[in-house]
């Protein structure tokens, strides 16, 4: 049986890391696409040359031709521009919307059966636009953010509690922006919810609040340190977790930006929610019960994404 084909649209910091992880984990053969001549070819060759020492079987090809992604099983989209210190993700909307148009058309023409994971920011609006431009089924187009934001939350919690991050679970829902919603009641250490851990004296409410805020600012913290771009190791690893869930039909329950219809009070809208990812793509949107405060934070986040989607429609009339 042929190996799965993974097309990576964008061969920058995340694209290159995705290619490396895909090869090391032997998820399939890789096509790295980018408009920058030489970059995808150079990264593909460099990673391929690491194969003998690492011991993986995967072919890697760099290209500027969308025809090379033909028949891809998975497309992961990072094409576009990252933010710099002082910018918000939303400042990228105009420039990256144009990129989503060409990428959506390329995927529609050459890989219409692929499971598509968008990473480009501002995430929730870009995944919506990518789906519109590509015309692919909603369950085959999603965005990566919740896995990353939850991983950051888990890391900070594991440090605070001095326990293995393997035992920490967390859910961050809503849009991937300043309004994201880290849900403390649904985040646990080995099944013990965070509010109980506060009562047990493992931490204080103030410290937990600070960790929640650090999670919300997680992307900006890395941008402030790197200065020339944004995070790429954890984002790539998070997207690979989603791609693997699809390719191996794992039925993982992962938070991601998915098309929500008839749940969470939404009627056909992309935002971060818990989903089940398997061979069918986004097989299920899981509607969890929220209390009044959680619902208010979620609604606030949805409103922020609605504003960005409206801005997209204002820029490109084919989306209106
Ligand atoms: N969703 C998330 O959680 C998350 C996390 C980190 C970064 N991001 C976003 O991911 C995107 C990529 O980040 P990065 O660090 O890899 O950036 P990068 O600048 O290193 O790479 C982007 C690549 O896209 C290419 N590109 C630009 N226009 C293109 C087009 N029309 N077609 C194909 N390729 C094109 C560029 O040549 C470049 O190589 C940014 O928008 C960033 O904000 C999102
Ligand atoms: O913060 C950014 O600009 C990149 C990404 O969205 C992140 O959360 O790391």
UniProtKB/TrEMBL annotation:
Q: Where does the Lactate/malate dehydrogenase N-terminal domain start and stop, copy by copy? A: 5-143
Catalytic reaction annotation? (S)-malate + NAD(+) = oxaloacetate + NADH + H(+)
Q: Where is the Lactate/malate dehydrogenase C-terminal domain?
A: 148-306
Q: Which SUPFAM superfamilies match?
A: LDH C-terminal domain-like, NAD(P)-binding Rossmann-fold domains
**Quick one: which residues bind substrate?**
83, 89, 121, 152
Query: Is NAD included in the keywords of this UniProt record?
Result: yes
Keyword flag Oxidoreductase? yes
Q: What is this protein called?
A: Malate dehydrogenase
Q: What is the lineage of its organism?
A: Bacteria, Pseudomonadati, Pseudomonadota, Alphaproteobacteria, Rhodobacterales
Underlying gene: mdh
């Amino acid at each position: 049986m042929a190996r799965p084909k993974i097309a990576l649209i964008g061969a920058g910091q995340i694209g290159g890391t995705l290619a490396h992880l895909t090869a090391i984990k032997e998820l399939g053969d890789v096509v790295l696409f980018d408009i920058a001549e030489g970059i995808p070819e150079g990264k593909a060759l460099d990673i391929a040359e690491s194969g003998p020492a690492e011991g993986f079987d995967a072919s890697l090809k760099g290209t500027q031709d969308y025809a090379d992604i033909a028949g891809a099983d998975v497309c992961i989209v990072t094409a576009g521009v990252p933010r710099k210190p002082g910018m918000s993700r939303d400042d990228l909307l105009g420039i990256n919307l144009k990129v989503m148009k060409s990428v959506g058309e390329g995927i529609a023409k050459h890989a219409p059966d692929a499971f598509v994971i968008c990473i480009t920011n501002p995430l929730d609006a870009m995944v919506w636009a990518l789906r519109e431009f590509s015309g692919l089924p909603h369950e085959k187009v999603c965005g990566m953010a919740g896995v990353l934001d939850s991983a950051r939350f888990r890391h900070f919690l594991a440090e605070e509690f001095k326990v293995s991050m393997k035992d920490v679970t967390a859910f961050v829902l809503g849009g991937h922006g300043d309004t994201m919603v880290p849900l403390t009641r649904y985040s646990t250490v080995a099944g013990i919810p965070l509010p109980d851990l506060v009562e047990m004296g493992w931490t204080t409410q103030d410290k937990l609040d600070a960790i929640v805020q650090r999670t919300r600012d997680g992307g900006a913290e890395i941008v402030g340190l790197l200065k020339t771009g944004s995070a790429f190791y954890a984002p790539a690893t998070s997207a690979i977790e989603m791609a693997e869930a699809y390719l191996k039909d794992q039925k993982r329950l992962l938070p991601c930006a998915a098309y929500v219809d008839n749940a969470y009070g939404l009627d056909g809208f992309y935002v971060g929610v818990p989903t089940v990812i398997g061979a069918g793509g986004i097989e299920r949107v899981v509607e969890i019960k929220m209390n009044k405060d959680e619902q208010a934070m979620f609604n606030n986040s949805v409103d922020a994404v609605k504003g960005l989607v409206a801005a997209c429609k204002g820029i490109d009339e084919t989306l209106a």
